[in-house]
Design brief:
The protein is an all-alpha fold. It has one domain. It is built from 13 helices and no strands. Helix 1 packs antiparallel against helix 10. The chain is globular, with a radius of gyration of 20 Å. The two termini are 28 Å apart. It is a multi-pass membrane protein. Keywords: Membrane, Transmembrane, Transmembrane helix.
Length: 308
C-alpha cells in the first residue's frame, strides 16, 4: 500500500529494494565461477531452477489463495510462460557466451541490458524517453565500458562473433523479460513460482538433450543453492516488487550498479585493489540514478506549476 502523501513505503521503494538485490547479484559471478569448475552450464541451470521450484512449492500452498486462479485468463498464463522463457534464455545465452569468449567481453556486452530495458519500455509499457533518462543510460553505459576496459578501448577486441551475438541476445532477453514482468498484475508469489517452473522445464530439457544428470558434491550443492536463492527465490521477489512500483527505466539505471558491486565483492574476497579508472567508472555509474531521479523531481515540479 502507498502512504497517504503519495510516497512509496520502504517495502515498495526501489531505493531500498534494488540495493538489496544488487548485493545478492554481486555475489553471483564469484559463486558461479566456483560451481562451473565442476558442473557444466546445463547442470547448473537444472539445479538452480530445480531448487527454486522446490522452495516455492513449500511456500506457495500456505500463502496463495488457489481460488483466485479461477479468475485468471489464458493470456495471464501465456504472459508468465513468456517471462519464464526469457528468464531461461537470459541465463542460458549468457553461460553459452562465457564458453566462447573471454569473461570481460561477455560481461561488457551483457551489460547492455539496462539500455534494452529502457528501449523496450517505450513500446511495451508506454514509458516516455526524456533527456534525463537518456543521460542516465549513457552515463551508466559509459561507466560500464570504462570499468570493463580499464579505459583502454584499443585493447578490447572481439574474439568470436558467435559468442558476442549470444551475449547481446542475453541482454535483449533480460530487457524483454523485465518489461513482460512489469505487465503482470497477478499475485507476485504464484507468478514467480510459475515463471520458475517454466524455466526449470526448459533447463531439464536442455540438460537431458546436451548433458547428463550428475549429483553435485556438498560444496557444489551449496554454491548452486546460493545461486538459486540470490538469483531466483529472493532475486525474483525483490526485482518483481521493484518493477511493480517503479518505472522500468529507473530500475534499468539501478542495474548499472551490477558490475561495480561485483567488483567490490572481488576486492573483498580476493584482496584486489581498485584502480583510478575503477573509481571514475564507479562515479559515473553511481551518478546515473540521481540524474534520472532529478528528472522525475523536476518533471513533478513542472506539473504542479502547470496545475497552479
Amino acid at each position: 500500500m502507498e502512504e497517504r502523501n503519495g510516497k512509496l513505503a520502504l517495502s515498495q521503494s526501489p531505493y531500498v529494494l534494488m540495493p538489496l538485490l544488487l548485493l545478492l547479484w554481486g555475489s553471483v559471478a564469484a559463486v558461479s565461477k566456483l560451481v562451473l569448475a565442476k558442473l557444466d552450464s546445463y547442470q547448473v541451470l537444472f539445479y538452480m531452477n530445480g531448487i527454486g521450484v522446490i522452495v516455492f512449492a513449500c511456500i506457495v500452498p500456505f500463502k496463495v489463495r488457489w481460488r483466485a486462479l479461477a479468475a485468471w485468463k489464458r493470456m495471464d498464463f501465456a504472459l508468465l510462460a513468456g517471462c519464464g522463457l526469457f528468464a531461461f534464455l537470459y541465463d542460458f545465452l549468457y553461460l553459452q557466451a562465457f564458453e566462447r569468449i573471454p569473461a570481460v567481453e561477455a560481461s561488457m556486452l551483457n551489460y547492455l541490458f539496462p539500455i534494452f530495458i529502457v528501449l523496450f519500455a517505450i513500446p511495451m509499457n508506454g514509458e516516455k524517453m526524456n533527456r534525463y533518462k537518456l543521460l542516465s543510460v549513457l552515463m551508466g553505459f559509459a561507466g560500464t565500458v570504462l570499468l570493463m576496459t580499464k579505459g583502454d578501448l584499443a585493447a578490447f577486441k572481439l574474439t568470436n562473433w558467435v559468442g558476442d551475438v549470444l551475449a547481446i541476445l542475453a541482454a535483449v532477453s533480460w530487457g524483454l523479460f523485465t518489461n513482460l514482468v512489469k505487465k503482470n498484475e497477478k499475485d507476485m508469489l504464484i507468478s514467480t513460482f510459475l515463471i520458475t517452473v517454466v524455466a526449470f522445464v526448459l533447463s531439464a530439457a536442455g540438460m537431458l538433450a546436451y548433458s547428463r544428470l550428475t549429483l553435485p558434491s556438498a560444496a557444489d550443492f551449496g554454491g548452486v543453492f546460493w545461486l538459486s536463492m540470490s538469483n531466483i527465490v529472493l532475486g525474483f521477489f525483490l526485482y518483481f516488487r521493484a518493477l511493480r512500483y517503479s518505472p522500468a527505466s529507473l530500475i534499468a539505471s539501478f542495474t548499472f550498479f551490477t558490475p561495480f558491486i561485483t567488483l567490490l565483492f572481488i576486492v573483498l574476497l580476493l584482496d584486489e585493489r581498485l584502480t583510478l579508472m575503477d573509481g571514475i567508472a564507479a562515479m559515473l555509474i553511481l551518478s546515473s540514478v540521481p540524474v534520472q531521479k532529478l528528472g522525475t523531481v523536476l518533471g513533478a515540479g513542472r506539473k504542479k506549476e502547470a496545475l497552479n
